Amino acid sequence: MATNNQLGNSFINKILPTFGQKRVDIPIWNESQHMFITDQYTSAAGNTYYLGVRISDQFVTILHIGLYHSWTYINEVEVYCFDGDQKKLIGKTKLDVFYDEDLVRDTTEKLLKDYMSSQMKLQGVAYNDTQLNDEAKKLVDRSYLSMFDSNTTIKLEAVRPLLAQHNN
Amino acid sequence: MANTSLARLVNDALPAVSGSSLTYNADRNMFLTTGYTSAAGNTYFQGIHLSNRLAIVFDIGIGYARTFLNGLQVYCFDGREKKLIGSRSYACVFYTDSRAQREAAEVLLEYLMSQAKLVGAYVSDSELEAFAQQQVLAAATNRPQLTA
After folding, report:
1. Residue B82 lies in a domain
2. Pairwise CB contact (< 8 Å): A147 & B114
3. B146 found inside a domain
4. Are A71 and B110 inside 8 Å of each other by CB?
5. Exposure check for chain B: N or C terminus, fewer CB within 10 A?
6. How does pLDDT run along chain A (168 residues), one tens digit per residue?
7. Is residue B39 part of a domain?
8. Domain range holding B101?
9. Which residue, A78, A79, A76, A80, is CA-closest to A65?
């Protein structure tokens, strides 16, 4: 069985410290939800809140998640596009229901589709609803990354500023 | 871990892990939060395993004669605060100790592997897998003393 020494005390103690010791500041990736976990806090009532951040090459999804009693809630979904190296809000929806990944996916697709259709309308460009729905679905599919996919490269120096922006 | 240090850990860390009042179930070596019973008669609560490095929280539901695993969260510590490092949700999964521990070990392994990848550290997956299982087992089998 692997021991702490075999793995390297230094690395394990940094990312999995004993109670009372500080954890190193490396962004936390939740593979099961395909997103970074950031901005965690626990209220006086004992409820824990955090942001789930999905980053793709064309947009960022931020999920406001709450843990109450023994249930997980999705409180809000926000979608940002990029403007240079900054993020720009393009849509948000308040949900406040039990966490449901299908609902999160549908909501993100709708926000992207609404953004694209409104932009096209503002520019007087004709669009096809079905095509936009398909495009939104493809974009959202691509945002569900796996850290362990050999094609996935997530560079810390690239995502740190994006994750840090959410502290504001 | 010596019993005295474990007792201190339990007294110190549990308030950081759960804001709810807790009971200790010796059979499962698990701390249980206060349950909530719905109008339909289903009861929901959380079960917590604790070690000096981890808090594993299982969302449990009891409906009719079945116990379900509805979700789990794995926390590490950052100073005296808990920090969520992974979670999963389930639909219609029966609770068993072995299934719950296997799921927790997988979530911990995903965390360890992703941290290694993010900093470019090379650690073999098999070493990390064995370490994750060892850590979850430690949390599940420690017999904490409830008084210092």
Report:
1. yes
2. yes
3. no
4. no
5. C
6. 455 555 667 889 999 999 999 999 999 999 999 999 999 999 888 899 999 999 999 999 999 999 999 999 999 999 999 998 889 999 999 999 999 999 999 999 999 999 999 999 999 999 899 999 999 999 999 999 998 887 777 777 788 888 876 654
7. yes
8. 4-140
9. A76
